[in-house]
């Protein structure tokens, strides 16, 4: 089976956001603007995923590592899975490496950005995020990974199964068990889930 033909190069870089991921991936092999369009499209989601797993303080470094890895591996990307699935797997691997490299840095101690609008609410939200981060760290890695992909990255169960290599039923079970464990932990911490 032959690879689909490369799309015609858009007359301007402004047309790049209109292309789907598959077309951008094929174009990125010959032009950095297409790669930049992929980064622009996916960096916010990768950052949310990284911040939830390694903390906001380390998320920027993880995102940089992810897109360096993507850039290096793009020519070898075969398209057997969607680009998003491949990207999330790379992001999870980068998060795991970051957690192993700095196991003594708790997620809940990372500084939160300050909001000039409502300092009291910002403090409450930071405290809640810190508790949620601490609760997530109590989960087994497989549950934390599946739950983060579902709740933070917004992937559906089949996509999570593809990213993690687990069976669909296993993914559902991990998410359900993770949610139950989080609910119990948060209730014990005095937070109504």
Description:
- The protein has 193 residues and is mainly alpha-helical.
- It folds into two domains: 91 residues, RNA polymerase sigma factor, region 2, helix turn helix motif (Rna Polymerase Sigma Factor, Chain: A, Orthogonal Bundle); 74 residues, Winged helix-like DNA-binding domain superfamily/Winged helix DNA-binding domain (Arc Repressor Mutant, subunit A, Orthogonal Bundle).
- Helices cover 66% and strands 0% of the residues.
- The longest helix has 23 residues.
- The N and C termini lie far apart (50 Å).
Q: Could you give the topology of this structure?
A:
Elements: H1 21-28, H2 32-54, H3 56-73, H4 83-101, H5 119-137, H6 141-151, H7 157-164, H8 168-188
Helix pairs in contact: 1-2, 2-3, 2-4, 3-4, 4-7, 5-8, 6-8, 7-8
Distance between the first and last residues' Cα: 50 Å
Q: H/E series, N to C?
A: HHHHHHHH
The top level CATH class name of the largest domain: Mainly Alpha
Rg? 19 Å
Low-pLDDT stretches are 103-115
Keywords: DNA-binding, Sigma factor, Transcription, Transcription regulation
Family: Belongs to the sigma-70 factor family. ECF subfamily.
InterPro entries: RNA_pol_sigma-70-like, RNA_pol_sigma-70_dom, RNA_pol_sigma70_r2, RNA_pol_sigma70_r4_t2, RNA_pol_sigma_r2, RNA_pol_sigma_r3/r4-like, WH-like_DNA-bd_sf
Organism: Deinococcus hohokamensis
């Amino acid at each position: 089976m032959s690879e689909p033909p490369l799309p015609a190069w858009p007359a301007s870089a402004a047309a790049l956001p209109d292309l789907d991921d598959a077309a951008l991936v094929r174009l990125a092999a010959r032009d950095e603007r297409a790669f930049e369009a992929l980064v622009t499209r996916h960096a916010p989601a990768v950052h949310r995923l990284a911040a939830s797993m390694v903390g906001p303080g380390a998320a920027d470094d993880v995102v940089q590592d992810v897109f360096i890895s993507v850039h290096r591996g793009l020519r070898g990307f075969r398209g057997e899975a969607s680009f998003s699935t491949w990207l999330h797997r790379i992001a999870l691997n980068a998060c795991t490496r970051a957690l192993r490299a700095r196991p003594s840095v708790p997620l809940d101690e990372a500084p939160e950005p300050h909001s000039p609008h409502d300092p009291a609410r910002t403090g409450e939200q930071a405290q809640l995020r810190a508790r949620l981060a601490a609760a997530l760290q109590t989960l087994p890695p497989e549950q934390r990974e599946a739950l983060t992909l579902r709740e933070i990255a917004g992937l559906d169960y089949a996509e999570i199964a593809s990213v993690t290599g687990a069976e669909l039923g296993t993914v559902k079970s991990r998410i359900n068990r993770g949610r139950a464990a989080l609910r119990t932990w948060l209730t014990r911490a005095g937070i109504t889930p």
